[in-house]
# Entry
Amino acid sequence: MESKNKVVITGMGTLCPLGLSTAEFWHACLEEKQAVSSIPGKWLEYADYSSRYWAPLPEIDYSQFGINRIEALRLDPVSKLSLAAAGQALDDAGVKVRPVNRKQTIFELDGLDQERCGVILGTGIGGLNTTLDSHTVHLFTRYRQEIENLLDTRELGPDTQRELQTLLKRMDYPHRYNPFTVSMIMNNSISANIAIRYQCKGPNKVISIACASGTAALGQSYEEIQNGRLDFVISGGAEYKYDKTGAVFRGYDIAGTLAHDFASPQDANRPFDKNRNGFLFSEGAAAILILEEKQHALGRGANIIAEISGYSESFDAYSIMSPEPDGVQIERMIRSVLQQADVAPDELDYINAHGTGTVANDEIECRVIERVFGDKPVVNSTKSWVGHTIGASGALEAQVAALSIRDQITHGNANLENPISDIRLLKTQENLDISSALTHSFAFGGHNCALMLRKST
Amino acid sequence: MTQTSYTAEEIRQKVYSVVFEVSGIETSKLDDKLTVNDDIAPRSLDRVTLFMALEDEFSTSVAEEELQDIVTLGDLIKYVERKAGISPD
# Structure
């Protein structure tokens, strides 16, 4: 059999509702800190919702991540998150960056061959925040001007004036149609901006398959290195789902996918628990991993966090919004990735589950895990702490899988009081011998992706 | 922009600083005769960025029709001074 390159993880960067670094995120999971609060009150001016909870990001000062004001004006939040996490990941990987322009916005990666460095990321909705802002400006600027003219030129009664002024106040949107709208909304802006900043001239792409985008990006990066096309890939996923009016939240809410009707926000996010009824909407995240050919990493003295040993995909071809009830294609994918990684089902130590908290996902996922593995591997849901970050989720979960292997410990499942299955669902963190870990993602549409990790020897 | 927030010198320094951020031209090399379109912001997107950055710096809005007569950096500084209410129209 043809020998293929080994692929290792040498750096990570993370901005998510649980913190603004990988260490903060990982420690928050281990310390059982949930990111959850009530949705912004302003959203309630626009619609009624079944769910009232979300996982907001901490306030972010992007200048702390080397993104200056001029860049910030031209970037959608999803690109800012990605750039910030990429900078962290390169630093974590021990890659020195050298500025090549006076404004310090373009850098070269010291000692790396630019043409063998790629950027492959995943996102579900890309620059939707800018799309919504620009659309609102486009739609209402002239109407708003008409109302202002009315107020200026007509004799109106005090009640009418007050009502019109309230209406204007509610039309809260940027006053200018952003001239950079096109480059802000396109999904590929997240990978393009990183590669321009760091002068990576190898393959550059964005994969958009909803909740599996991050896992797919890592898998395809793994294959690029494994097959010898690249030495070094900045990979992972990013998502930003906030908008001023709650329109994006409403989409998930009206589809009946979100956790709802709990007395306290703290109780809402409960994957694999009998009382679960949906996932926790997360504002967003970026999770970047540096993937590298093993000899390349060793040659520059990099610290290896874990090795990627297999990747597989399948597609349900069943429903655009629901997983196929028997999980047949998920099972086929898992068996394929086990075979690739040469891991027998009874040898696998740990599964970082998709674990959304929706009724259908968790039931199907547990049944497939039980069929393939019985009750051997421990299973947890990172979404139970950080919420569902869609296109970033698979990359956040791959980070947790890698860190669990590195630190020989993993986190529990939040709010797991009455488990729906007898598989080994962790209630709290546990120190474990973890040599191998599986992390998989299942997306709206029917896309399934699985990544296998192991301790690097 | 608050009408009396800045002195003329403060405005000049802030405009210079924004021009550096957008163009990368060191403030020591800036003078009022430099042209906005050729020297400072030769691409249309650079000009747009320049005006967005000025809006951000001075918490004001810049209407496109107000920009027609701005040719040089000196004109730009005068325009910002007028917006700040310290230079007669």
Q: What stands out?
A: Chain A is about 35% helix and 20% strand. Chain A has a mean pLDDT of 96. Residues 128-153 of chain A form the longest helix (26 residues).
